[in-house]
Design brief:
Shape: elongated
Number of helices: 8
Number of strands: 11
Structural class: alpha+beta
Strand content: 5-15%
Radius of gyration: 53 Å
């Protein structure tokens, strides 16, 4: 069990490492692409700015001899910007979005919405007030109605010949470049006037787990004043000639009875595939087609059986013969023969065991009778050694 747990832990570490490496590569790729897009837009802005300065310089110095700049792709589009500069390319990071939305409560709990009155604190329309028309949460940018407008050049390929090559539209503004404007009553004088709110926080946060919706109120810190959310405008529904009338919708065209099913049979084709294998009721034509296909498969299998080789036919005949004979039965003679063989084998086994026991008993008896001679004691060994030494001396000489 411990070995399995170690393998699982190792596999989890390997997967986590691979995921981390993959996420890091994706992040670096996105960062590189964003940087390239931003640099491309900056270079395009520099080129347009340098071209505008050069045009002013040429008009001042050359006068009527200045080169014409109202021909070609930029004909009748003097002063407009390139269409690629309409919106910023690339992905804005979460840190940058939080910095842009810091005064409004952050990117996750943004305390501004469509319909709020805001004032621009940067750009050519600085100090002007307008309503928010659109919010881009991915880039933390807003479009204010009738503010920060500019001329955008439209390419010749995407416009008609009689249309103007310039379109005057609103450019997106970062949320850091606007502030909320709301009428607040002065408690000292009792006069209600518009006030620029530089900081907003959220309070009374509610999260519905069933629907996943979040609700909160926006509060001005320090003053503890709750700023109400703007009322959403009801959608206007227009009637068209192709719309179905209510009287036709409410007209009952199907009355169920006990003489037929409660639903038309055609509804089954809409709810489930007409030829689904899970369907229990099919058309007769479909059933006939399936039966024909099954019969064709059976005929083909029969044709394959008729094309066997002679050796296959021989083996098939042998198998069929064995099947006809059935399982063999033991006769009385067979049983007697089997009994004799079993008796002989039992007698041989018993004789072999008797021989083994006799051999083991004789080996034990011979081991007990063959006793080794006793070892000589110390006195006997000394006497023997003495006798040996005396015998070794030479005889005395005769006088």
């Amino acid at each position: 069990m411990q070995k399995i747990l170690r393998r699982v832990a190792t596999a989890e570490r390997v997967v986590a490492k691979r995921t981390k490496t993959k996420d890091l590569k994706w992040f670096k790729k996105q960062k590189k692409e964003t940087f390239q897009d931003q640099q491309q837009q900056l270079s395009m802005a520099r080129e347009e700015f340098d071209a505008a300065k050069q045009a002013v310089k040429d008009d001042w110095e050359l006068g009527p001899l200045a080169p014409r700049r109202d021909v070609g792709d930029w004909a009748d589009a003097k002063g407009a910007i390139h269409e690629a500069r309409y919106a910023a390319y690339g992905k804005v990071t979460l840190a940058m979005r939080n910095r842009r939305c810091q005064w409004a409560g952050g990117a996750y709990h943004l305390n501004i919405t469509v319909g709020d009155r805001v004032v621009l604190i940067d750009g050519p329309d600085k100090g002007r007030i307008g309503k928010i028309k659109h919010i881009d949460y991915d880039k933390a940018e807003v479009i204010v109605d009738e503010l920060n407008r500019t001329n955008i050049r439209v390419q010749r390929e995407i416009r008609d010949d009689n249309e103007s090559p310039v379109v005057n539209i609103e450019l997106p503004i970062p949320i850091s470049g606007i502030r909320l404007v709301h009428p607040i009553k002065d408690p000292a004088t009792g006069v209600t006037r518009d006030v620029i709110i530089n900081q907003l926080v959220h309070g009374g946060f509610l999260h519905d787990r069933v629907s996943g919706k979040r609700r909160w109120s926006r509060v001005v810190p320090g003053l503890n004043i709750s700023i109400p959310w703007p009322k959403k405008e009801e959608k206007e529904f227009r009637d068209y000639n192709c719309d179905t009338l209510r009287i036709d919708v409410e007209d009952k065209t199907f009355v169920p009875t006990l003489l037929r099913p409660p639903m038309p049979e055609a509804v089954l084709d809409e709810l489930r595939n007409k030829y689904s294998r899970f369907r229990t009721r099919h058309d007769p034509q479909y059933i006939a087609r399936l039966e024909a296909e099954q019969q064709a498969v059976a005929d083909r299998s029969k044709l394959m059986d008729s094309m066997r080789t002679p050796l296959q036919e021989f083996h098939r005949a042998q198998r069929e013969g064995k099947k006809k004979k059935g399982k063999p039965r033991l006769t009385q003679e067979m049983l007697e023969k089997i009994g004799e063989v079993m008796a002989k084998n039992l007698e041989r086994t018993r004789n072999g065991q008797a021989l083994l026991e006799a051999a083991s008993n004789s080996a034990v008896a011979s081991a007990e009778t063959a006793v080794p001679p006793p070892l000589p004691t110390e006195t006997t060994a000394t006497a023997t050694a003495t006798v040996t030494v005396d015998d070794a001396q030479p005889p005395p000489s005769s006088t």
